[in-house]
What we know:
single chain; alpha+beta; Chemotaxis protein chec; 30% strand; 149 residues; 7-stranded antiparallel beta sheet; 32% helix; 3 helices
Amino acid sequence: MQHTDCVDILVEIAADLAFLTPVDSHVGTEAQPVEMAVAIRYSERNPDSTMVISGQLALGLGEGLPRALAVNMLGCPQRSTIAEEAIRDAALELVNVLTGNILPRLYGTAREFALSSPFQITAMPATGVQACSLTTEEGLLSMIMTEPP
């Protein structure tokens, strides 16, 4: 999978699931402040494989994007009061769906992966094996895939 594929998948999921409006995308990431960061761990289910694949996909949501994401995914009016838990849950669902779409494109559909429950993280990883970002009208999305050391 090339880095541009990550961008394509990020654009597709952001538009189709989160109803975000893509404006610009970039391969790689630059240090950008995020309001919220979420992640999910993945590992290959087949222990007989010669190459065991595992890692983490982290998703950073820029200023204002977590609330906009929740509004879009819940179908609420813009001025609605939305609980912090619902905002976090929307971001967790987005990273879950994104991971489920990226792994088969990256490693093929013959491999099976176990995914952890998505979780909130305090900061985005500095680097990774795949990285891209997407600017939307609603805010910035940054994605970084890392592998264990």
